[in-house]
Amino acid sequence: MPVSLLWAVDVYGRVYSLSTVGQQWEHCRNTHLEFKRVTAAQQCCWGIGCDNSIYLNVHASDLPVRYQEDTYENQRWNPVGGFSERLLPSDRWQWSDITGLQHQPMASFQLPSSSWEWEGDWFVDENLDGEPTEKEGWTYAMDFPATYTKDKKWNSCVRRRRWLRYRRYKDMDTWAKIPSQQTALPDPFSDISCGGWEISEEPRGRLSLWAVSLQGKVWFREGISHHNPEGSSWVEVPPPGEVVQISCGPGDLVWAVLWEGHLIVREGISRDCPRGTSWAEVESPSPQVGAIHVAVGVNVVWAVTKDNKVWFRRGVNSHNPCGSGWINMVGEMIMINVGLNDQVWAISCEDRLVYFRQGVTSSELSGKTWKAISIPRDGERSHSSASANSQHSAGCFFSSEVRAPSVVSDAELDLEHPPGDVAISNVTFPGPDSFVDAPTNSSSSQPCEVVPDEGEADVLSSNSDVTITGSGGPPDPQWSNVDLEEAQIQNGQTGAVADSVDSCSLSSVATYSLAMEDQYGVDEHPLWAWVSGGGCSVDSHSQLNWFTMLQSVQSMSLSMTPAQTAAWRKQIFEQLSERSKREMDNFRHYEQAIEQSVWVKKGAMQWWRDWKPHKWMDVHFALEQFSGAEGHKDGILFIYYNYYEEKKYLHAFINEVTILVPVLNDSKHTFAIYTPERTKQRWPIRVAAGTELEMYDWLALLSVSCCDSRGIYGSPSKQAIWSITCKGDIFVSEPSSALEAMPYPTPCDQMFWRQVGGHLRLVECNSLGIVWGIGFDHTAWVHTGGYGGGFFQGLASSTDNIYTQTDVKSVYIYENQRWNPVTGYTNRGLPTDRYMWSDASGLRECTKTGTKPPSPQWTWVSDWAVDYSVSGGTDREGWQYAADFPASYHGFKTIKDFVRRRRWARRCKLTTTGPWQEIPPIPLSDVTILPCAAQSSVDTVPVWAISNKGDVLCRLGVTLLTPADLRLLALKYQSALSPSAGDCWYHIPSPAKQKLKQVSVGRTSVYTVDENGNLWYRQGVTPSYPQGSSWEHISNNVRKVSVGPLDQLWIIADKVQGSHSLSCGTVCHRLGVQPMEPKGQSWDYGIGGGWDHITVRGNSMEPPRICLPSMTEPSPRAAHTPPPTAP
Question: Are 129 and 189 within one domain?
């Protein structure tokens, strides 16, 4: 992650920057000005000073900001004196620009501002189109204007040469004032925003700067580029009303807020027209409360209304800059800002802290939660409170009434607030594991948690005696309850009021007045007024150090002395040693029932190394498995390798392995090993065996070891989740009840998947244990209840219910030809054409002789033949025609068709074993089983299917004992034969301009996927109106969807970001699905890529109901007090 800066302005107008690798705010000390607002880009930052002038801070870099000035000296030949400066009246200026229309003498060139300096004097450019000219740099032509040459000819009547001079921008990393125009602006600026660097095909360094004046006018700064960072001039862009604030995104989004609270959007922004063409009005998020602030990114718009509510605009993109609707978000802010990658920062209206929106990704643009950036400013780390007046550092003000921070969820603040160890009236002093950093006011009397800084008073009490000592107090401080009112009375009687730590009392703290001291002391957290993240490059995977300072300050403030730590550790060690000796001596005479054993299996493998350049390395592969005293088995997997003649190793614990996947490879027998961490990275451990048999031996051994360590044996349960890879391998996972628990579900990347023998294209199940599958050849299969098969042998596979399974698929290659005017269509294409024998994309050469089956398990069962069943149709010879590669193909030739192709197919067959039994005789293309609840008393369920000819079928009487019942209804012709088949079909229109390819139905939810990979949710589905009302878009890049019997939502997603690359075919789980929020909140990414199908229709386990503990636990006496009886 490149280092970039987050900019902010505090309430005093001081400008600070925070690095993405830093842990404190850095003050911009090179200016004595106070700023109102700033707006940042990656290469610079703009600001409005308190003198109402515009300032620019250009970041220093290895590439200087240089600008080349040039002018041309023109001369004409005279028969008397030769070439001279005397030109004809119709000629151009003696000193001009390249066109000759503008007069440009050398003396007319002036520096734009004091921020520039000349690098040298004028000099002659002695090059013409990259070739050297004569010494003086003259180029010759017959007349003005014409084509110039470096050689003088007999008819050369004019000549010119180019003079150059460079100027450099010198005020780097400092605030430089932008010079005012010759025509002064009518009034000063009140707001400013920069962006536009991602407008399509924009030159490097090009920026768009928008500003708002106090009269509500909108201005645009022209000419900003890398070579001219200050720009050239201001141009007014008339708005439809008085504007109070404006925001410009990195792309072509510009929104503004009107004085009345309405919002306007600038339309027509492009490279050729960066100012746009017109304004469009958008309604305020709340009709009663107008907007006061708006912030835009690439595809997002955030707004803040006058009641400090935060709103998110959905449906915003470059094609629809106005969006489609507002969504109310959690939090109350005074302003908000959107930076790079659509990341969001805001300033809270309550504590004036800068908050960062976590969880913002391309698929979840609204993010998940707000997290406070609670780190000090430079120069604050060494400050400690030595007096009672510095209690601000505890995060709380004291007065006669004390209010706690507002109650928000842990997910929003990412801070835990355990009950304190000391209760002083309404003020609570927490223990070492508790800390709060939030300002308060005196409007209510709620408990407030306080942590003293290092060097502050330690509280000691015995009954009613209260003393406060410094760091040199007793070596073993203890926390105890103190009666604040009693302490106040005693202090009032003694009249002891002191300023030092050694003599201050709790009474002086409890009666602290907010008006006595400046509320913005140096020890208090900074109060921010503005933040800008336009130049801050972070994303959802960035590791930031902005949120750890709170805990480090806490540990620093409450740390024990080395002597106390040593004594404490010694005491615990002695107690543990005594306990261990006492317990072991009581059982020494017992014999050991189970003997511990360790065994190791080793082998030579190849490993695809983790670092670049990635390549295969010869390694030693070892599995060390051991059994404990209680018979529990576990193990460790080692990979030993040499790195620059140094022996190193990589290891993975067997109980952390989540899946073992065979991988397709043309030349190696490869399999991948996943752990939760490597699943997040999308980078498994990939190893290759010498032979296919050796690979399957290792896979079987590792799979059994993983199952032993987790205690998983036998056939999959009725609640199991099934999935299939693109290769056709079948995997199953045993879900836990916490998988759908809220608010803390089991992460998807921690699920363990084991392989089941067999080969399928898709699989479906329900909670009765009925599982059906369909192969690549459209053959239907039913699960027999066994386990194992395939390469699993011995105890890893059941002895019965294992059958031989076959599958057939076709391999396709394309023959491509281009039309020749002489010979007609031929296999001789252009140099830029695709291969004449290729795959569907044309990027890979695939010939008849060079194309092999998908893997060694497949064998050819036919020869190559022309395939006529191609989308778009073919002619009699199987050809499809198009204007060029690639294009839309059709089955007839026209006069504009210059290329053609035809598809060749060859069938291959795979034979394996698994717990699957064939169901003849109708080939199927899709199947689904009626889901049931976990406690359902239903014994028979219908199985619905679609044949490969498009007929809708229903199979009745299917039970767990007879999962392949033979009663079949072809509903296309016999829909009235069974009440369970219904009496009619309703046509549901698909989403606009989309063609649906899959649908999945749960208890109350209906989801569908179209051919473009969009996931849609059907709104308004009720028992009385099952058709629903409309479609709502949920996500894109979705391959398959599965909705469970409890409305669980799982998908196979494409383009999931990993640490190395995008992953296609990833299992994803929708979080936050509840009856009141059936669409859920965000995605949790699991195993992938390479997955093609998943079904969760058998998982009907109700998630546990988790009751979060109350913030205030009732006292024991109150808990046992009987309720009052009614008279």
Answer: no
> Which has the closest alpha carbon to 241: 219, 218, 220, 221?
218
How many Cα atoms are found within 13 Å in the side-chain-facing hemisphere of 1080?
27
Domain that holds residue 1072: 996-1095
Contact yes or no for 952/971 (Cβ under 8 A): yes
Strand ranges in 148-240 using DSSP code E only, listed in sequence order: 158-169, 175-177, 189-195, 208-213, 218-222, 233-236
Among the residue ranges 43-57, 113-127, 288-302, 423-437, the one predicted with the least confidence is: 423-437
Q: From its phi and psi, is residue 381 left (phi > 0), alpha (psi between -120 and 50) or beta?
A: alpha
Model pLDDT, residue 950 = 83
Residue 249 within any structural domain of the chain? yes
Please write down the long-range contacts of 49-55, taking CB distance under 8 Å and 24 or more positions apart.
49/175, 49/177, 50/13, 52/188, 52/189, 53/177, 53/178, 53/180, 54/177, 54/178, 54/189, 54/192, 54/211, 55/31, 55/175, 55/176, 55/177, 55/178
pTM of the model: 0.50
CA 342 from chain centre, in angstroms, equals: 10
Least confident of 93-102, 198-207, 816-825, 1027-1036: 198-207
In a domain, residue 314? The reply is yes
Buried b (16+ CB within 10 A) or exposed e, 313-325: beebebeebbbee
Q: Do 126 and 193 fall within a single domain? A: no
Kindly state the tokens that stand for 1118: 């109150």
Q: Are residues 198 and 347 in the same domain?
A: yes
Q: How many other C-beta atoms can be found within 10 angstroms of the C-beta atom of residue 309?
A: 18
Choose the weakest-confidence range: 103-112, 233-242, 449-458, 1115-1124: 449-458
Tokens representing residue 301 in the block? 């718009």
Strands (E), 360-464: 369-372, 422-424, 427-429, 448-449, 458-462
Element at 679 (helix H, strand E):
helix 676-681
Domain-embedded: residue 779: no
Instruction: Tell the burial category of 1051 from Cβ atoms under 10 Å away from its Cβ (0-12, 13-18, 19+).
Output: buried
pLDDT cut 70: percent of the chain above it = 77
pLDDT for position 398 = 30
Which tokens go with 95?
């000193």
Tell me 745's DSSP state: P
- Long-range contacts, 222-226 (Cβ 8 Å, 24+): 226/43, 226/65
- pLDDT for position 561: 63
One domain for residues 100 and 31 = no
CA 901 and chain centroid, separation: 41
Amino acid at 903: R
Question: Tokens in use for 1092?
Answer: 């093609």
Boundary-marking domain end, from 842, 877, 912? 912
Dump strand ranges (E) for 418-486.
422-424, 427-429, 448-449, 458-462, 465-469
Q: Are residues 359 and 310 in the same domain?
A: yes
